[in-house]
Model the fold of this input.
Amino acid sequence: MEAATARLGRGKRRKGKSYGSEERRLAALLLTPAMAVIALVAAYPIAYAIWLSLTEYSVRVPGKWRFVGFDNFTEAFGSTEFWDSVKNTFLFTGVSVTLELVIGLGMALAMHEAFRGRGVLRTVVLVPWAVLTVVSAITWRTLFEPNLGLAPVILGKIGIGGDIVWLGQEGYSMAVMILADVWKTAPFMALLLLAGLQVIPDDVYDAAKVDGATTWQRFRRITLPLLMPAVLVALIFRTLDALRIFDLPYVLTGGSNGTTTLSLIAHQELTANRLIGYGSALSVLTFVIVMAVSFLYIRTVGGNIKSLAEEG
Amino acid sequence: MLTTPRLLTALATALMFAIAGCGGGGDDDSGAAPDAEKATQAKASGNVTWCIGKDTSGAFGTVIDNFNKANPKANVKLLELPEDAGEQRRLQIQRLQAKSPECDVLGMDVIWTAEYAAQSWLLDVSDFISENGDKFIKSTVDTTEYEGKNWAVPFNSNAGFIYYRTDQAKEAPKDWETLYKEAASGNGVVYQGFRYEGLTVNFLELLYSAGGSVLSEDGKQATADSQEVKDVLKFMADGIKSGAVPKAVTTYKEEESRRAFESGNATFMRNWPYAYALGKDSDIADKFDIANFPGYGGNEGAGVLGGYDLAISAYSKNPEGSLAFIEFATAADQQKLMATEASLPPTLTETYDDPAVKKAMPFAEELRTAIEQAQPRPVSPVYPQISEAIFNNVFAALQGDMSADEAASKMNEEIQKALETF
Done:
């Protein structure tokens, strides 16, 4: 649909005539189906969740409900569980996305070099990303199983925490969760960055070499700035994903030992406890936080992309 | 509101009499009482969908085949739900909230009865139970009850055991205190200490043995701020501190505890009967045995009841056929089949005496005792929240994040709050 719209619009412009409002009307008309679908699958559920978050449904009397205003939100703000989960979610997001960026960048730079078997490597590297998170979470849980798991045994051999119950202690649990996430999504980050690297023209590097720039200078002055747009896109993708993390803590720790996240408590209240109003309020809060972070990105970082593009 | 289900139940029950061949002639317009076999064929008809957890052994399929063969006019089919009980519940509730007629017969974990019944999602089967209830082990029938009525028929049951290493302990200890003491000097005791429903069960087993409770008799008041709760919490927390219980237990569900026990990392284990057959296939096959729960503080041991009941969805389009199927699936033949082919503990008292069952489950005698002695988990429509209040605070006490007294009063407060849910 969008492709068709774009082609049509371009076609008209190519004729060199300005259709003004008529063209705009046509554009609106052509966009309507897409907009209707978006309204149906995105706007309606969001609006409905917001409405539900202002209500309370009885768990004892069938069909009974009442309007409670912002009570559900006040309750969330007054609960330590909510603030703990906010703290954990941001800690997890901050550390894991940073590590993924650094490691992913390294992987992308390595894969960008021409060498034998590069195609194979690029495919192989993506394997962790292709594994379902739940499956990889179960694998990590097994790896870190006390006494029997491979990880504690190996770590014990090299003298790291022979006595630690990795998934049973605060801090260590979060570390495993971050490790599992980095393992899975650093390749994805690498792929996005690799795409960014490939559009940087070689002659820029050649010119820099002629001018006597060192490898570090070329990386610092050419690669990084020109890669920035790709980095930012990758960051936005990963950050928003990480803020909604659910499967890892659900499988690894059940949210214990300082690994509860926003999505996890929303899920617990909505499906286990069937507190539809309160659970929806938690979902709405998660949505608001994710939105706020994306706005922040677009405001601070989106502007950068623009100016970068203009400089370019 | 209740008229329709009640009418249907009456209808269905009348049909049950006809099927059982013990009367029901008066209900028939034709006047003449049909003989039993004809009645079965005439009445058990139509499509019935059975929504229950994954048929891992294939035994559910066999029961269905047997029923369909015996009732040519009926067609039961299986809708397999995931293995995880929480997911089963979620998928059933999704259908029930949408008033979907897709599921006729629901395979319910025994802890869902109150919640489903309170929402009017089930048909009342009190008449069937009052007719047939005494054939079942009493504790299993109790799990089908909510507000004086029966909403389901016991299908399979479950209760925990103490597994012990015969090469490390001469016999199963008589009380939990001794067990922990022996565990501390031996290789430890493992149980399900992960923060989930299983921890609630493990805690309640100790608490019930200590004579405590978390909910008043009428289910309206939290009673967790008691000396028994504090004692049991302290006992459990001290178990970890003293080394009787490995720290790792807070990451253990059923399978992790089983693996720890089978790999020789524990002298004792609390687990469900399923671990028995698997243990007999492991390296410690000849080195372990099972026993019923020990006592605590001078009281007799008590377990917590697990298992599944079969209920009829209030939105079923074929309640008669559904009830006929439930009666068939919970009768002696099929219970025996479940026990021998799927190792599912029967709910009928007599099935445990069957030689074939005894052969398939060498621990049949202990199992029946365990089920008879087991008590239900708190009966309440807000059970999920109550359980969350229990396992969260027990877990905090195990981790040493809270003292036993703090955990008890927080548990009490949260259960009370759950009871006051709108």
Remarks:
- Strands of chain A lie at 55-57, 65-67.
- Residues 1-16 of chain A have pLDDT under 50 and may be disordered.
- The CA atoms of residues 134 and 247 of chain A lie 6 Å apart.
